[in-house]
Design goal:
Layout (H helix, E strand, L loop, with lengths): L5 H9 L5 H11 L2 E2 H10 L7 H13 L3 E6 L7 E6 L1 H33 L32
Antiparallel strand pairs: 1-3, 2-3
Helix pairs in contact: 2-5
């Protein structure tokens, strides 16, 4: 078993590249940005372990697929920068991602509820409230009934 804390082990999963596309689309739905600013926004969402090359390749693929557009912005101070924005197709794709993430949110919520129930000894029934698993039912009393010894 590793001596690393669990949080360090899970860090690599937190910023999976699978989350990159919906976050890029969501950010671009709200802002028109160049690559560096996009990386800064991604880091604000906790996606900070994806390398710069992956982000630019993903943006290029999104542009090739028609979900993102880009243009060059000239600067008096430094080099020209490519500015990215979302297209109508990208907005539609973002809606699809949102629906899928809602499904995954429910799935993850069910997992967490089930896990919490196993820790607390409660019974978990899928489809019930995701906030609280049901409590264990009371066990029937198995002691024999006492005989009434009073005289009638």
């Amino acid at each position: 078993m590793s001596d690393k804390p669990i949080d360090n082990h899970l860090e690599m999963y937190r910023a999976s590249r699978n989350w990159l596309v919906p976050y890029l689309l969501l950010i671009l739905r709200n802002f028109t940005l160049h690559g560096y600013d996009l990386m800064t926004k991604l880091a604000e969402f906790g996606i900070n372990t994806v390398d710069q090359g992956t982000i630019y390749r993903t943006l290029r693929q999104l542009e090739k697929d028609g979900h993102v557009s880009s243009s060059w912005e000239n600067s008096d101070i430094g080099p020209s920068r490519r500015i990215y924005s979302i297209t109508d197709s990208g907005v539609n794709l973002l809606g699809t991602w949102s629906k899928a993430m809602g499904f995954y949110q429910d799935l993850i919520g069910g997992f967490i509820d089930f896990y919490q129930a196993t820790l607390t000894g409660n019974i978990y029934r899928p489809g019930m409230s995701t906030s609280k698993p049901t409590e264990k039912p009371e066990q029937p009393d198995t002691t024999p009934p006492s005989e009434d010894k009073t005289e009638k």
